[in-house]
Amino acid sequence: MNRPAEASALAHSNIAFVKYWGNLVGDLRLPYNDSLSMNLSAAHTTTTVSFDPALASDHLSIDGNAHIGPALARVSRQLDLVRERAGIQTRASVASANSFPMGTGIASSASAFAALTLAACAAAGLSPSERELSCLARRGSGSAARSIPGGFVTWRAAAEDAESYAETVAPAEHWDLRDIVAIVSRQHKQLGSTGGHDAATRSPFFAARIAHSPDDYQAIHQALMDRDMARFGPAVEREAIALHAIAMTGDPPALYWSPETLALLHQVRAWRDAGLPVWFTLDAGPNVHLLCEARHADQLETELRRLDMVETYLHNRAAGPARLIQPDAPAAS
Amino acid sequence: MNRPAEASALAHSNIAFVKYWGNLVGDLRLPYNDSLSMNLSAAHTTTTVSFDPALASDHLSIDGNAHIGPALARVSRQLDLVRERAGIQTRASVASANSFPMGTGIASSASAFAALTLAACAAAGLSPSERELSCLARRGSGSAARSIPGGFVTWRAAAEDAESYAETVAPAEHWDLRDIVAIVSRQHKQLGSTGGHDAATRSPFFAARIAHSPDDYQAIHQALMDRDMARFGPAVEREAIALHAIAMTGDPPALYWSPETLALLHQVRAWRDAGLPVWFTLDAGPNVHLLCEARHADQLETELRRLDMVETYLHNRAAGPARLIQPDAPAAS
After folding, report:
1. What is the mean pLDDT of residues B102-108?
2. A291-330 pLDDT, tens per residue?
3. Which one of B212, B249, B259 has the shortest CB-CB distance to A204?
4. Rounded to 5 degrees, what are φ and ψ at B84?
5. Going by DSSP bridges, is the β-strand pair A92-98/A59-62 parallel, antiparallel, or unpaired?
6. How distant, in Å, are the alpha carbons of A4, A86, A221, A233, A332 from that of A293?
7. Average model confidence (pLDDT) for chain A?
8. CA B58 to CA B22: how far, in whole Å?
9. Farthest CA pair distance, chain B
């Protein structure tokens, strides 16, 4: 490898309906429980990786800003996994761009590590299977495993590195479900997900959550397969609240909600009482993911535009898998 | 009993540091776990009970307004317990007044049923012991058991009616702890406590909470005995958050917090970061109980007056036991 070897990839973030929270084996990001998600059409990361023999160390830019310190170290560890498999030592330059704000409950690390892993493998001349890619992406960020396959995705808990990967349970076309993310705050969250996973396992309720998880998974998976919003919505809300109950009783406790988050949770119930069938879920951050079927999306957007507390919103459909793109290609969803 | 037999009583509400949530035996309000509380000097109910042979049914007025329906039925059931013990059938007129808004997380039912029980017993010619009074008050509202004794109070879980009563663990003078209740909403809560207790037992985390409760009780009780705010405050906050985690994962879920509640929880952490040693607890409602030692209370009040979201506040010290008063006597705390 004497000249730069470059590849670009695009990956979508995903929203989990059954959440991943807590690692059985932290270093390998092997989760305690199965999770279930949908890729998000309007939330994606495009990443270009160039292995360049002229570089003395890895470089990282995100949305045009150079990053050093922990962010670069985490990317370098991920590149090391790829270099190890490819048998190379070459340092790389990584340029990444997000279509959405980072660190606010939209899983930027999911799309970022999925795109990084795919681009790095291609640039290094590797051609891993989707399953291998998913395992590898998981090492950088657990939920990145779910951003490799397309559509609606399951990620199985397993005790072995090679067994904990994600795969499609239904293609994006299966159900025209919408996830309209109401962005109430662009503040970067105080406790990152990695620390949050660790703190959660010290919640007095963590063991009970894991014990109940297979039942929750089964109910939500079946409602998704049946496209039954009346069962899906309430079960997904309960799952999200349970995750936050674990986070806020963790050690240290993590209260990801802002006042605006809570105002929106109450608003969702008021909308339902008024006949608009919308449910919520939340990742580890203040923004609220509003779930509805396609035929109610226009009305929901109209309602959202009336709320001062919502800075902006991101309207998502189910999206496809991570894919290689031409460098500098427009990042179409 | 041919003419009205009348008595008046005053009882303080209380704030629990180890909460009561969930009944082992619902009708008897026998709790799952030991709880620990402080009587609140500024939050009290005064109640006059007149057994009057001229009445065909019980009458109830609260803060000058006549009540019928569920509120009156609950008071009548409590009066029945007293009538049964006294061997009388006479109907009563009950007039009650609160020094604080009802249904917003200050336990109005605690002070109300403590005052009602004491006044009704006296008017009926009974002279129960403090222990008997506490058991009897518990039948009307669980936390009312704790509003019978004075100061800092423990209420033991037990499987038998006569064994589940509250008693003083330290007099009011033991520690000049302040509970400044920031009232962010006078809205009546949607789910009353009785329904909330029932819903909580269906949380997937309920069993874990009960299993951990003795350890929490031990730690908080010891910190209270030692007047050690640095241990007391964090443990009390964790206990309160755990209660709300149970409530929000109950069936049906109960989200008692308003946006202003959450803004205050974040504010408390900001105050601590800035060097003001204040911790919070919350009952089943949106208002926030701010706990500090006497020497920090002035500064905390100054800070509170700057916050638009706080409608008003109630500054409490530890208060004495429920007591008989002269009808129409001023309700001094």
Report:
1. 66
2. 999 999 999 999 999 999 998 899 999 999 999 998 765 5
3. B212
4. -60, -45
5. parallel
6. 46, 44, 17, 10, 23
7. 92
8. 30
9. 65
CB of B16 closer than 8 Å to CB of B35: yes
Residues of CATH 3.30.230.10 domain(s) within chain A?
5-172
Model pLDDT, residue A51:
98
Q: Cβ(A276)–Cβ(A300) under 8 Å? A: yes
What does chain B come to in residues? 333
How many C-beta atoms lie closer than 10 Å to residue B89's C-beta? 11
Residues of chain A with CATH 3.30.70.890: 177-316
| pLDDT reading at B292 higher than 70 | yes
Q: CA-nearest residue of chain A to B246? A: A245
Of A195 and A169, more confident:
A169
- Shortest CA distance from A265: residue in chain B: B255
Q: Which of B212, B262, B273 to mutate to test the interface with A (most CBs of A within 10 A)?
A: B262
| Nearest alpha carbon to residue B15 among B220, B268, B267, B259 | B220
Residue B3 near residue B53, CB atoms below 8 Å: yes
Beta bridge partner(s), residue A315 = A180
| pLDDT above 60 (res A104) | no
d(CA B99, CA B315): 12
CATH no. of A177-316: 3.30.70.890
pLDDT in tens, B171-219: 999 999 999 999 987 665 555 666 788 898 999 999 999 999 999 999 9
- The interface predicted TM-score of the complex, written ipTM, equals 0.86
Taking the C-alpha atoms of residue B44 and residue B108, their distance in angstroms, rounded to an integer, is 8
Region of residue A170 (phi > 0: left; psi between -120 and 50: alpha; otherwise: beta): beta
The reply to whether residue A249 touches residue B238, judged by beta carbons under 8 angstroms, is yes
Q: Is residue A245 less than 8 Å (CB to CB) from chain B? A: yes
Taking alpha carbons only, the member of B137, B166, B170 closest to residue B149 is B166
Nearest CA-CA partner of A108 in A62, A73, A66: A62
For residue B259, list chain A residues with Cβ-Cβ distance below 8 A. Answer: 259-260, 262-263, 266
A181: part of which helix (H) or strand (E)? strand A177-183
Choose the CATH number for A5-172 among 3.30.9.10, 3.40.309.10, 3.30.230.10, 3.90.1150.30: 3.30.230.10
Q: Do A253 and B260 touch (CB under 8 A)?
A: no
Tens of pLDDT, residues A243-275 = 999 999 999 999 999 999 999 999 999 999 999
Burial class (CB in 10 A: 0-12, 13-18, 19+), B169: middle
> Measured between alpha carbons, how far is B314 from B256 in angstroms, rounded to an integer?
20
Extract the tokens encoding B235: 């443990």
How many other CB atoms sit within 10 Å of the CB of residue A69? 8
B204 and A208 in contact by Cβ < 8 A? Answer: yes
**Gyration radius of chain B over CA positions:** 19
What is the DSSP-derived secondary structure letter of residue B95?
E
